[in-house]
C-alpha cells in the first residue's frame, strides 16, 4: 500500500496538485453492529505512511472523527479544492466537488460488485459536481442525510422495510423532509419530525412500514448530520495544515 501511495503522490506532485492526507481520528462513530467507538488501526503502517509524507513534504492532519467529514469541512471552507475519496458519505458531509476512482468487475465476476470482486480502473477518475447533481436529482446534503437514515448507512440499519428506492423517493420529494429533519437538535424534535412529517408522508404514499417510536435516533442522526470535525474557521490558506510531529501509539 505504501508503495502505491508513494507513486500516486509523486504523480500528483508532477502535475502541480498538492495533496493533503487526512487520517481517521479517535472519535469515529462505531460501524453498524459494532460496539467500539474506534476502528482497528495498524499504527506501524500509519507511522510509515506519515514518514513517507513528511519525506515528500506533503501535509497531513488527524481528524477528530471521520476523515471524510474532515475533508468535506476543508473543502466547504475553501481550504482545498476537492475531496478525493471512495466513500459516498462525502455527499452527506457537505462536499461540493467529489472525486473518486471508478471500479470495474474482475474477470469472472461481472455480477458481483462487492469490493473484493472489483478493481480500480487505471488512469481514470469520476468527478461529481454536487451543484449539478442537486439540480438534476434534487439531492441536497440534507436529503442525503435523510436517505441514510431511511435506507441505512455505515452507522445504522435504517428503517426496517424501507429500501433504497423508497428512501430515494422520500429524499427527492417536494416536502423537504430532509431539510426539516436536519433542523432537529434533540430527540424530542426528532420525534416531532417523525409524527408531523414522516408518518403523514408514508401514509399518503401508502408505504406500510412500522416506524419505531424512537425513530430517528438522535445520536445516530447527529453522526450523519453533524460529524465531529476541527474548527478550521479563521485560518488563512493552509496555516492549520502543518506537518504533524505527533507519535502514533496504540
Please characterize this protein's 3D structure.
Helix 6 runs antiparallel to helix 7 and helix 6 (141-151) packs across helix 10. With 250 residues, the chain is mainly α. Residues 234-240 and 242-250 have low confidence and may be disordered. The strands form three sheets. A three-stranded mixed β-sheet has the order 3-4-7. It has a two-stranded parallel ribbon with strand order 1-2. It is built from ten helices and seven strands. It folds into two domains: 2-135, 5'-nuclease (Rossmann fold); 138-225, no CATH class. Helix content is 39%, strand content 9%.
Overall, the morphology is: elongated
Tell me the strand percentage band. Answer: 5-15%
Number of β-strand runs? 7
**Strand-and-helix sequence, N→C?**
HEHEHEHEEEEHHHHHH
Question: What is the fourth-level CATH superfamily of the largest domain?
Answer: 5'-nuclease
Count up the domains: 2
Distance from N terminus to C terminus (CA atoms, Å) equals 20 Å
Backbone structural class: mainly alpha
Sheet with the most strands: spatial strand order:
3-4-7
Rg calculated over all Cα atoms: 20 Å
